[in-house]
Amino acid sequence: MIKNNLSVLSMKRLLFAVVSLCLCMQISAQEEYEAFAISEFAYSISGDDSQCYAILKKDFMQTEEFVELFSAVMECYAEYGATQKASPKAKAVMDKVKSYALGGRVFARVTPFQDGTFGVVDYPYIDGVGDLEKWGLLDEHGKLSIPFAYRSIQEIGSSTYGVEEYKREDALFGTVNKQGKIIIPLKYEVLVGDIWSHRYGHVILRLPNGKVGMLNLDGSAAIPFQFDGFGDEYDHCIVAWVGKNKILIDKTGKRITAQQYDKIWGDDEDHIIGRRNDVNYHISPTGLELGKAD
Prior knowledge:
Elements: H1 8-25, E1 33-37, H2 43-46, E2 53-57, H3 64-83, H4 90-100, E3 107-112, E4 118-122, E5 135-138, E6 144-150, E7 152-157, E8 160-164, E9 173-177, E10 182-188, E11 190-192, H5 195-200, E12 202-206, E13 212-216, E14 221-227, E15 229-233, E16 238-242, E17 245-249, E18 263-266, E19 272-276, E20 279-283, E21 289-292
Antiparallel strand pairs: 1-2, 3-4, 4-5, 5-6, 7-8, 8-9, 9-10, 11-12, 12-13, 13-14, 15-16, 16-17, 18-19, 19-20, 20-21
Helix pairs in contact: 1-3, 3-4
């Protein structure tokens, strides 16, 4: 906490130091906006939960007006440190912060996505199931295009998002589009997007029976749910697990290696190598075993 006898001069010096620190620590990959943590330093702004983020324009955060706004936040924090009570002007300061923020509001959690949208948790945080957060999506125009309805949300492709049911146990996964329409029904135990979805246009999913498969981002079938797991994916083939054994399949799920391997991986030169009975073999992208590897 800030000491009761913190002088105005000391506070100003601290202000500029903290502003510089925060500008280095902001959580954003956005071109125009950044998520700025305010109540980590200004508990009195909310009067309850200390985690609060405003999504602000980057240009604004370089102005004297922003510094003045942050100074007001810090003054509220100093008063809270001295009295342990919310500053009388805290609400007015919060309203001022909101007036500059995308969507005219602040959030308890913010996750920036590459398409210019943000995964967000409402603030003040309203607890519906134990301590689970309820996530939604704020679009690049500040509209809450997906309501606060999911346990988690992740970007898995252009305007496509993986979501998790809002329940403590046995929550299932699916996908929605930018408008919140369900594309892949929420009936899968595991959903893996990220590298696979952005590069290859599909997601890995696991059914409650333990079998994994792949669906395209539009929800259509890519690879049937008949495997026990997937490993690395290459331009023409994918490592799949059958029990503890590894094989290569093509992009439709058809097996292309005659042999099974204990391990399959790619080396530094993008060659595919399979190990069987402690011997390494080169494997072609079409599944042919080409001979022993050094």
